[in-house]
Amino acid sequence: MRQQQLQNEALESLRQLGAATVYEAQGACGALDSGLKPLDPASRLVGPALTVDMRPADNLMLHYALLKAKPGDVLVVDAKGFMEAGPWGDVLTEAAMARGVAGLVLHGAVRDAEAIVRMGFPVFCRGLSIKGTGKHQPGRLNVPVCIGDAMVRPGDIVVGDRDGLVMVESDAVDRVLASALAREEKETGFRRAIANGSSTVELLGLGETLHRLGLH
After folding, report:
1. Beta strand ranges found along the chain (DSSP E)
2. What stretch of H or E contains 102?
3. Are residues 11 and 38 both part of a single domain?
4. Furthest CA-CA distance within the chain
5. 7-11, 32-36, 51-55, 113-117: segment of lowest average pLDDT
6. Are strands 145-147 and 140-141 parallel, antiparallel or unpaired?
């Protein structure tokens, strides 16, 4: 129980620090591409990935995934980037929230955007489509999926906000959190120094580079 509490606290800290800080803290890696946008810019997302590999224009596997989802999971769905169907909408959102699912990342389109935003469920996707889907095709759960040019593995921690999405390997959470907190503390010092008259050139040690480039 204590271990789970510590894990939850670590994830909440990552959520508050934000995707950009986490991305930089783990060596500028793990970001998903910028084509994945939150339906609601105010959305913040964190949780372990329940991965779904599914056929375009068929959402049978999303209904199945919700039978297997645990509270706090983030559905990370490879719908092959297909944009002419919306396999996720308000009814699945209602079902996901009832299961305690933390959010959705979908390599494809969704529909019922206004209702989803009103319900407060974090959804990141490539766009919107009003077109419906079938419920016939098999797929796979908890396998590595390719979202754009990034591989997402089951259990990877998803951190998302208006800036974007980043994945953290499950066994790297403590290390990445420590680095992210250190980065946040450093940037707080930068902001304090700027308020006291320092320049970003001074703080980042860019004077020599500017001089070498003839930028006096």
Report:
1. 37-38, 45-53, 74-78, 103-110, 123-128, 140-141, 145-147, 150-152, 157-161, 164-168
2. none
3. yes
4. 66
5. 7-11
6. unpaired
State whether residue 20 is helix, strand or coil. Answer: helix
Q: For residue range 143-166, what is the model confidence (pLDDT) as tens digits?
A: 999 998 899 999 999 999 999 999
Helical axes 90-99 vs 60-68, angle rounded to 10°:
10
100, 182: one domain: no
Q: Structural domain tally of the chain? A: 2
Domain that holds residue 122: 2-169
CATH of residue 13: 3.50.30.40
- CA dist 89 and 116 (Å) reads 7
According to the model, what pLDDT value does residue 8 have? 84
Q: 153 and 108, same structural domain?
A: yes
Here the tokens at position 114 are 């206004």
Tokens of 52: 């779904």
pLDDT digits (tens, 9 = 90+) for 86-124: 999 999 999 999 999 999 999 999 999 999 999 999 999
| Predicted TM-score (pTM) above 0.90 | yes
